[in-house]
Write a structure and sequence with these properties.
Elements (H helix, E strand, L loop, with lengths): L6 H16 L1 E2 L10 E5 L3 H4 L3 H12 L4 E5 L21 E5 L5 H11 L15 E5 L1 H5 L10 E3 L7 H8 L2 H4 L1 H9 L4 E2 L23 E2 L8 E5 L1 E2 L10 H4 L4 E2 L2 H10 L4 E5 L9 H11 L3 E3 L9 H11 L2 E7 L3 H6 L6 H13 L4 E8 L6 H16 L4 E8 L16 H14 L4 E5 L2 H11 L4 H10 L6
Parallel strand pairs: 2-3, 2-4, 4-5, 5-6, 9-12, 12-13, 14-15, 15-16, 16-17
Antiparallel strand pairs: 1-8, 6-7, 10-11
Helix pairs in contact: 10-11
The protein binds iron/sulfur cluster.
The site of iron/sulfur cluster (SF4) has 9 residues, from helix 9.
Protein name: Radical SAM protein
InterPro entries: Elp3/MiaA/NifB-like_rSAM, Radical_SAM_N2, rSAM, rSAM_horseshoe, rSAM_sf
Organism: Fervidobacterium thailandense
Length: about 475
């Protein structure tokens, strides 16, 4: 595509190109004029840290569908694709992966900026088809039921061949017929096509999802992402993963090994709800150890760490590791169904210290009605004990409970801003020095809480209030 001449569009174009040039691409399938714009409605850094942004594109490529990636920046106006830098207006089908509740605002902003009516039933034949799927639609598809022409619920692998077959007919049958054909799929909710019933589907994970590129901008800096597990065997009461992605699926260890060996010159990011629950972890670590492969993990449970895992992680991660005890005391972990005790936390921390980690980041959730001062005292004791082990820095990351649909905490309400700030002040005053407190923004968490519960028309009402007035 010819470079834009207008200053702002040129800046936007250059930004997209800069990210594109940062990518080390392993394979891709360009060529035909792509029909599908695959949008991750967040920044490039967030998008490229998600395997989904690559994997869905690969699944469509395999089916012979031309698809290009897009990401979102609040100042973008044209929205150029990563692959060819074509503007999004040229694509007749816009597929969004809805990974985080707050991205709803970005989806809506993008539509408004491109003059697409927010309400699906107000769109006409010349508008793009708005197709929305992803983890948020799995636990509450009705958030976007009025906005999307097609809401897809569940893993994309389940129906990608059928979705692709319909999309490929777009030029011949046109927008309305494509929506009607997609609405025939079990996994699809489409109000504009009069289809309100749907059945979600979880894929058996027969393939091992592997990203097709790496980039230094990802949270997993230059690492090749590979998914080893989907869903979680645990049922923590605040977490949708344990309640929506059922049954849990694990990738075949031999296939994972093949990928590691094939790309052994690269570093890997192993993606799963908790790597320590992967049943074939020991076999995998054997290959990693014998081949000298470097890797990091998206998440681990402190009660599952072993000396071998920590030693291997340390070769890549050097000094820091992250754990999520979540509950500030044993009582609170029990309330949260966290299934983790203080002795297990301390023993994991000790092991990590012994293999040479100096810094640890710990995640906690506060703001439940059962909390008392005693619980906070237990947190401070845990931090002091951790420092006594010889850790140089502890990052204490705190966020308020956000009660989510599909979880046992759904009926709870969220703590008030005032109360949250008071509890943070109390923590700050009492944590041992050398502990760095990082608190999640109440505003962002409350937004997440509100959006996660929205249904149908409520979403449009909500957006009317929350979108930047100048955008509407
Ligand atoms: S918090 Fe972690 S361990 Fe608990 S259900 Fe969610 S993913 Fe699983």
């Amino acid at each position: 595509m010819r470079k834009p001449r207008e200053a702002e569009a040129f800046r936007e174009y250059e930004r997209v190109l800069r990210y594109r040039k940062s990518e080390h691409v392993i394979w891709e399938q360009l060529g035909n004029l792509a029909q599908v714009a695959f949008v991750f409605p967040n920044s490039y850094e967030v998008a490229s840290s998600s395997l989904a942004w690559s994997w869905v594109q690969q699944l469509l490529w395999r089916e012979g569908v031309g698809v290009e990636r897009f990401f979102y920046e609040p100042w973008f106006k044209k929205f150029y694709s990563m692959e060819s830098q074509r503007p999004i207006d040229e694509f007749p089908i816009w597929m969004f992966t809805f990974q985080f509740e707050n991205d709803l605002l970005n989806i809506a902003n993008l539509l408004i900026r491109k003059k697409i009516p927010l309400r699906a039933s107000d769109r006409e034949e010349f508008h793009p088809i708005i197709f929305i799927g992803g983890p948020v639609t799995l636990f509450n598809p009705r958030i976007v039921s009025e906005i999307a022409d097609v809401v897809y619920v569940g893993d994309f692998e389940c129906a990608v061949s059928r979705v692709a077959a319909v999309i490929k007919e777009f030029q011949r049958i046109g927008r309305t017929n494509v929506i009607e054909e997609l609405a025939k799929l079990d996994q699809v909710l489409s109000k504009v096509a009069g289809k309100e019933s749907f059945k979600s589907c979880i894929s058996p994970l027969e393939d091992v999802p592997v990203a097709h590129y790496t980039t230094p901008y990802s949270v997993f800096k230059n690492k090749l992402l590979i998914e080893v597990g989907r869903g979680c065997i645990r049922r923590c009461a605040f977490c949708v993963t344990g309640y929506t992605k059922k049954p849990v699926k694990f990738a075949n260890v031999n296939r994972v090994r093949e990928v590691l060996l094939k790309h052994r010159d690269r570093e890997f990011g192993l993606i799963s709800a908790t790597i320590t629950d992967y049943p074939y972890l020991d076999e995998l670590l054997e290959t990693i150890e014998s081949e000298g492969i470097k890797f990091s993990v998206s998440s681990l449970r402190v009660d599952g760490v072993t000396e071998r895992l920590l030693k291997l992680l340390k070769e890549t991660e050097h000094y820091s590791f992250t754990i999520a005890p979540e509950g500030i005391s044993q009582k609170m972990r029990d309330v949260m169904l966290k299934d983790l005790n203080t002795a297990e936390i301390l023993s994991g921390l000790k092991l990590a210290r012994d293999v040479g980690f100096y810094n640890v980041k710990m995640y906690f959730i506060i703001g439940l009605e059962e909390e008392t001062e005693d619980d906070y005292r237990e947190l401070f004791d845990l931090l002091s004990e951790t420092l006594r082990m010889g850790y140089r820095r502890i990052t204490l990351s705190v966020n308020p409970l956000v009660p989510k649909p599909c979880t046992p905490f759904y009926e709870r309400s969220m703590i008030s801003k005032k109360e949250y700030e008071e509890r943070l002040k109390y923590i700050k005053k009492n944590v041992p020095k050398d502990v760095l407190l990082e608190a999640e923004s109440y505003k962002e968490c409350y937004l997440q809480y509100q959006i996660s519960k929205l249904k149908d028309e409520e979403t449009l009402e909500f957006l009317k209030e929350h979108l930047d007035k100048t955008e509407r």
